[in-house]
User: What shape does this take?
Amino acid sequence: MINHPGKDKIASILLALNKRISNVNEVLAEYDYQPLCKHDIPAILNNNRKRKISGPLMPHYDRLYFELMLVVFEQIGGTKIVIKNQPSGIYQPYRLYMMKEFQLELTGEEERFLYEITGHVVRDRLRLFEENCAKGDLISTYMCKECLNETLDKTLPRFIADNDHGGLQLFAQYMANATSCALKFPDQHKLLVTNRCSIFEFFIQDADGAKPVVNFTGTANHTYNNPYDQHNLEGFSTSAPAMLKLFKTEVEMCRKAMGPGDFTDDPEIFVKLVMDKFKRWKVSHVFEEALDELMSTPDFKLF
Assistant: This one.
């Protein structure tokens, strides 16, 4: 029995239970520890990398918990199959990814710590992704053509209406990250556009390996205006064979729906699809500049 557990162990356990930073600090105070600060982050990240995904279902929650789980998945490596309405979020530039809304905390210090640790977690995930790419791990993203068009048609005018050139540039870099990888490494980074919409959003990590796992993210959009809310269910993870079979069947249905004229797995055609949307909103030069910069080298490069 541990009579006085370490600060990092307490914090890691409570964060894995989806507790707020303010809740964690309250418990730490009971053990005579100081509130969480930037010096605690490396140990928390190290503990998180040791987590395992096993059993029928592990619930996902919004906020920091979900980001921590994504690192656990990326740590597994292997082939990744993504079903989504746009290229996988792993291609998003760090600054774009961090433009999300953050959970409310009780004090400014706790809000600042939450932002800082989230940034470290996101960087940890991106680092692992780049290491997996260097090892040759595959990533295939299946996207419904209508959903992809809708996503682009909603996102681009929002940045333009807000006169947010910085946000528009980051979004263009996100699209350029994905398309440049598909152009330079077509057998490793596949962007597959189909007329079939699976409705679900999920990904399978280590899909071709001995121990694949599913991350089902759902489709619900959450708001963060309730400071008393403790849990916003985001989805679940599972390694259960029956659930894996269900989601692999979804992938196979997307694959079978890809007949002549119904899809594109040609990255050049994908570039045209995205470019046409940027042209429609008269900002094609932003996407062209981002893509040209990445294509200037044959090496793996992301913004």
Summary: The CA atoms of residues 18 and 65 lie 5 Å apart. The chain has one domain: 55-295. Residues 55-295 form a domain with the Endonuclease; Chain A fold (CATH 3.30.870.10).
